[in-house]
Amino acid sequence: EVHIKEPIEKEVNPHLLPGELLLCEASTVYKYMQEDGSNRGTYGKLVCTNFKISFLDDDSASDDNEPQFKNKIVGENDITLQCVDQIYGVYDEKKKLLTGQLRKYPEKLIIYCKDLRVFNFCLRYTKEEEVKRIVSGIVHHSQTPKLLKRLFLFSYASAAPNNTDGRNQTVMFETLEDWRDELERTKGNVKYKAVTTNEGYRVSEKLPLYFVVPICISEESILKYEGRGIPIWCWSCHNGAALLKMSAFPKEQDDSTSQMQKAFLDGIYKTISKPPYELLKMDDLSSSLPSLQDIQTAYTRFKQLFLIDNSTDFWATDVKWFSLLESTNWLEIIRRVLKKAIEVAECLEIQHTNVLLIEETATDLCCVISSLVQVMMDSYSRTKSGFQSLIQKEWVIGGHGFLDRCNHLHKSEKEEAPVFLLLLNCVWQLVQQYPPAFEFTETYLTVLSDSLYVPIFSTFFFNSQHQRDTNKSGESLKTQSGPFRFLTVWDWSVQFDPKAQAFLNNPLYAEKPKPDKSQRKTARFKHQRQLSLPLTQAKPSTKRGFFREETDHLIKNILGKRIGKFINSSDEPPNSLREFYDSWHSKPVDYHGLLLPRIDGPEIKVWAQRYLRWIPEAQLHGGGTIATAAKILDLMEEVQSLQVKMDEEHSQAVSGDVHSVPVLRNSARLSSLFPFALLQRQSVKPALPTSTWKDLEDEDDLVKRDDEFVDLSGDML
Q1: Which end of the chain, N or C, is surrounded by fewer C-beta atoms within 10 Å?
Q2: Where mainly located (predicted)?
Q3: Inter-CA distances, 460 with 103, 407, 448, 457, 464, Å
């Protein structure tokens, strides 16, 4: 039985942003604690606005329990409407997906979020009228298709005061000067030029206002096929070789048209391929990488492993964790993408060859590969402002269809694919393999992935620069006189105060003047749930890498053929690539030079912080990367206080010009879930998981095995 507390005397009202309107609410809603099977939880009010779904309880009114890493826009009990993945209702203990009009209203509501949180609300003690209003309101506002101008982005932009931090160092690539500066920075201005041909979007609405092409490409060529078939510059290597991308012509064409297009392309290729001085390698990504549909299918399967309702479900899946993880194919897709980036890097670095990436629109996998190559080859892209400028250049201005790929408007699931998340997963692999090479942390990447679903920033809510520009005018709103002033996600002060922002910066970043070459291998932390498919040897051979055809037979027999297939699933690459990979990994790492990811099966890991942060069962008490970070930050604080004392002794006291360091006073309370959650209740792993009990039907056999020690913890340690 659940004891119903008397209604709260003091009214708890939601914190509303400018332009945010309360649409419906329900009192006496019981929110279950997700992590255990008991009915423990808390009473409160469930509200739905035009921005978010929010649960308000007693704690919402007090600031005593304020987390150190607090998001100022989205609280821990807030779900933005764009972050809602699926909504289930529970009717007589049966779960049913809720969509459209409802005939019967559930007694329990389960909301699965795109950031992998799971909320369980009991509506049994709520008034029937309120249940109808809140359930139909939540389903309608979060699941039904909507018009672009109905996004909260526009309500917020028209109502919010424009007082953002103007000291943003990110290059936005919205002006011709930004492109010219980038050409100069990469020494690409000898062979390439920034063009204004698309001003007024007269060439194509899919292309940005300004972009860079080879010097010898004429304006007529760009105009001829609306920008298709034109090599667009991404980046230039220090040796002059360039990375280019091109949107391909449609494959189904009549003969005369395709002949004309072929002749046009031959002419274009001759301008950038002049053997032996200028070589060109073309790479059609639609044939050499998984399709967007494959990526979406793999991610859909993968995220199900982490959308866990309760503790019992978690331990039930633990027994078959490896096979479930492998069957999703998500880690294999990450590996293939990283391998493709290594191939491109080898062409640019060793063969001094221009690489032309080809894709139907050049706005999906082209963005992933070109961004990864730049992160691997250009140390500027590994700084915070450099990485943000890279995302602006290749994705936001480059025309990646965030609106369609994230399905923000719920228009078509066919267009949905987690392409940007795929990039962040790949960059995370590099960040965790070479931490000193990056100015930002994995927390930065996690927060950036969450920002995909916060519709107060325009960064991830348009398909192209043209769409953003045409929707900037506020003519449709009578209250709005001038154009909308959209926020950019790169102004982190909107979401976090300075102390919280400190978690986004890497205190161990090896700054350029003094590159740290001594640290070859970084420490790895064992998570309670192993995060990569196993295939490690005690002593790795010198010829390590994804090229080794023969895998240790004993390991292969133990782990079965599936994992062998995972490691060796791709064709043997050319000798030059094998030598390039092995040669690079045999030398000490230059954190400001080329970085190549290790992509053996076990080296490709699950991004633990993003995917396990809401699952208390997966936490390490006082452990994980945060334990190390806590020690480092304590040490930094001590060094700074000593420095101040020394300065005071020399009568040169510093006037408060010390960088803010997040103070982790009570590090004993921290777990690997930090900074997204503090230490949670310890979940006890059953001696034998539920599913195993079901499989063991012969009770006599269990009696015989009475004295035998059954160790099922191998999967977890």
Answers
A1: N
A2: cytoplasm
A3: 36, 11, 10, 7, 10
